[in-house]
Amino acid sequence: MSDTNNLLPSEAQQEIEKNFRWNFTVNMLDGASFWLGVSFISSSVILPLYLSHFTSNPILIGLIPFFATAGYLLPQLFTANVVQRAPIKKIFPVNIGFFLERLPIILLAPTAWLLASNHPVGATIAFLACYGWHCIGAGTIGVGWQDMIAKLIPVDRRGRFFGISNFIGNGTGILGALVVPFVLAKFAFPNGFVIAFAIAALFIFISWLFISMSREPAVYSNKPVTSQSDYFRSLPGILRKDHNFLMYLIAQIVFSLSSMANGFLVVYAVKTWNMTDSSASGFTIALQVGTTLAYLIFGFLSDRKGHKLTLEICVLISILSLVLAFLAPNPIWFYLILFLRGAVTAGTFISGISIVYEFTDPENRPTYIGLANTIPGIASGIAPLLGGWLAGTVNYRVLFITAAVIAVISFALLTFSVREPRKVQVKDVDLPEHPNP
Question: Dihedrals φ, ψ of 410, to 5°?
Answer without folding.
Answer: -60, -45
